[in-house]
Design goal:
The protein is of the alpha/beta class and 489 residues long. It has 15 helices and 22 strands. Strand 5 and strand 6 form a beta hairpin. It binds nicotinamide-adenine-dinucleotide.
């Protein structure tokens, strides 16, 4: 079995990281690059035995880590952030090779954000407190106790950013972690294990297991020693995980898919609205928060569409390592086929492709043309289901009430974006939208202290700032009577 691979000059150990050492599996799976299909490595394929070993390591390391003073935990998280910054270029190129997202975004946005995830939760931990309060002279004192080993399961569309958005608060809270990254993008999680070890994180505090969701993943989420499960991924997987977690009553945080609306009112700055709409093609449309349903007021729909087409047609599609590229490949042949299946069924049902509507035959491989569909029925599959590719639909509305009704008419509720020049309208509409996040005249502004999560089938629970610590900790209230102390002199 091969234990190592080299990707873009970066050496990566492809085994698990359990209890502070590398552990192989009898079987491996092959990791391919979505850019050109190149083989990136043979990755350890974990199962129930590796899940048990990782959980045992996390359980053994828990008491000492939980007892480590907050300041020391925070120092170690900052040391991990330093390591991320030191290896930023390596992490960026490995992530791009593995999941096909733009190198320039990884360099300038994503990897700095990964370091920030650690710094933010380290600093937040140090100021985490609730003011004591009194009940008939008794003092109530609220504390956040570490909960135990946490199972963290993440998807491929933003692998290291989404993993560390869970790892950082879980560790800050005094928990130990077993991280399972997605099998389509396993590499940067392995580098994170190296960085954490170099930073001095004690053995067993962070464990990384590789493998398929239905194998090592399901063994982890049904493990009786898991004290928390935080999952980001698709709705069907979330339902399977929730069922497994129910057997042990393990608390869950679920960050799932969406079919978010972008509402464009006639009073909006139309150029801004078009910029916001074109931004929805970022990461080749593989962003949970994407506003994939453009709801445009009828009176400006024609002009909006004209400007949108001009702007979207200028996007450069190609190799994500090239600075000039705006849209890279999709992740996998299965994903490309899924995207095209949605589009072809919509076209058969009467939709019209204003732009795109096919894979990019010139580039071949996994590149799908940025697509805009109109003439779609509200109850059709293309309006109701998450495509997770560069595919937007455009519908029109005549009144504010109609806009809100259409916006809320899916089973999701992750995010919504409103483009309007009227502040009162923004407040009125925003208050009626079912969404974990509403952006007004902006998109993807995400502060780590803000609550993040989805309503309806877009998720369960919120993470971010205090909400992360509420989830990752056993929150305790200690009530102390005013008298009853013995006098010890
Ligand atoms: P997925 O559900 O197929 O897989 C996600 C992870 O779950 C992978 O690591 C996979 O191995 C694991 N898994 C699969 N079956 C499992 C099981 N039975 N038990 C335990 N683990 C299992 O999702 P995906 O295709 O990798 O990701 C795309 C989805 O993620 C989209 O729906 C997208 O909207 C969603 N997403 C949501 C957010 C958010 O914050 N709300 C962010 C990014 C992506």
């Amino acid at each position: 079995m091969t234990d190592r691979t080299i990707v873009a000059g970066v050496a990566i150990d492809t085994r698990h990281w359990i209890g502070g050492r590398r552990v192989g599996s009898a079987e491996t799976f092959t990791d391919h690059s979505p850019i050109d299909g190149a083989v990136l490595g043979e990755i350890a394929r974990g199962g129930a035995a590796e899940a048990d070993a990782a959980m045992a390591a996390a359980k053994a390391a828990f008491p000492a880590w939980a007892a480590t003073p907050r300041a020391e935990r925070a120092r170690l998280l900052h040391a991990i952030a330093d390591g991320v910054e030191k290896r930023l270029e390596e992490l960026a190129i490995v992530e791009t090779s593995d999941n096909g997202a733009l190198l320039r975004s990884h360099r300038r946005g994503v990897m700095p954000r990964v370091a920030h995830n650690f710094r933010f939760f380290a600093d937040w931990l140090l100021q985490l407190e609730h003011e004591d309060f009194e009940t008939r002279g008794h003092t109530n004192h609220v504390s956040w106790d570490p909960a135990g080993p946490c199972v963290l399961i993440t998807p491929w569309n933003a692998p290291l950013m989404l993993s560390t958005w869970k790892v950082a608060p879980a560790l800050a809270a005094g928990n130990t972690v077993v991280l399972k990254p997605a099998e389509w993008s396993p590499l940067t999680a392995s580098l994170l294990a190296d960085i954490a070890a170099e930073a001095g994180l004690p053995a067993g505090v962070l464990n990384v297991v590789q493998g398929y969701g239905g194998e090592v993943g399901s063994a982890l989420v049904s493990h009786p020693d898991a004290r928390r499960i935080s999952f980001t991924g698709s709705v069907p997987t979330a339902k399977a995980i929730a069922a497994a977690a129910a057997a042990n009553l393990t608390p869950l945080s679920l960050e799932l898919g969406g079919k978010s609306p972008l509402l464009v009112f006639a009073d909006a700055d139309l150029d801004l609205a078009v910029d916001l709409a074109v931004e929805q093609y970022d990461n080749a449309g593989q962003v949970c928060l994407s506003g994939t349903r453009l709801l445009v007021e009828s009176s400006v729909a024609e002009e909006f569409t004209r400007r949108f087409v001009a702007k979207a047609s200028a996007l450069q599609q190609g190799d994500p390592r090239d600075e000039a590229t705006d849209i890279g490949p999709n992740i996998h042949q299965r994903q490309l086929e899924k995207i095209d299946g949605f589009v072809q069924r919509a076209l058969t049902a009467g939709a019209r492709a204003v732009i795109g509507g096919t894979p990019n035959e010139e580039l071949g491989g996994l590149y799908y043309r940025p697509t805009l569909l109109t003439d779609v029925a509200q109850d059709s599959e293309i309006v109701q289901e998450e495509v997770f590719g560069p595919v937007l639909v455009l519908q029109t509305f005549d009144t504010e009430d109609e806009a809100v009704r259409l916006a809320n008419d899916t089973r999701f509720g992750l995010a919504a974006t409103v483009a309007t020049g009227d502040r009162e309208r923004a407040e009125r509409v925003g208050a009626q939208l079912v969404a974990g996040t509403v952006w007004v005249n902006c998109f993807f502004v995400r502060d780590l202290q803000a609550p993040f999560g989805g309503s309806r089938e877009s998720g369960v629970g919120r993470e971010g700032g205090d909400w992360s610590f509420d989830f990752y900790c056993d929150v305790k209230n200690t009530v102390t009577a005013p008298n009853g102390w013995r006098n010890h002199g």
